[in-house]
Amino acid sequence: MSMLKEFKEFAVKGNVIDLAVGVIIGGAFGKIVTSMVEDIIMPIVGAIFGSLDFSNLFLALGKVPEGTAPTLAAVKAAGVPVFAYGSFITVALNFTIMAFIIFMMVKQINRLKREAPPPPPAPPAADPEDIVLLREIRDSLKK
Length: 143
Prior knowledge:
A two-stranded antiparallel sheet has the order 1-2. The protein has one domain (about 5-115): Non-ribosomal Peptide Synthetase Peptidyl Carrier Protein, Chain A. It is elongated and about 115 Å long. Helix 2 (about 15-50) crosses helix 4 (about 85-115). The protein has about 140 residues and is an all-alpha fold. Helix content is about 65%, strand content about 5%.
């Protein structure tokens, strides 16, 4: 079998296509969660805890040149190695929120699956004709 034919069979399998759709939706979902964290949750957290901004929390691991703004972007642009733990906190928060949302979605899907009524039992299969005839003969001999 040629390599192209094998690849075509692999690519058109349902699981591969489902996986591709899942990856695309997952990427879009990740952007939604990132926006929710950066644009909705973090401003609220900042308002509660006093203008807290995780994105600019970092530790410079080298000498910062004079006149460099004390922001993560400016220090990185100056070529100073940084330990950007604020970015990590943001990513960890994004992951936690996304994991919780996915958990809630799976929980609801499982609940809906349980609520679906079970299919009715299949009617018993009819006996073969020879068995029916033998029973009729047996019943007539009993009389």
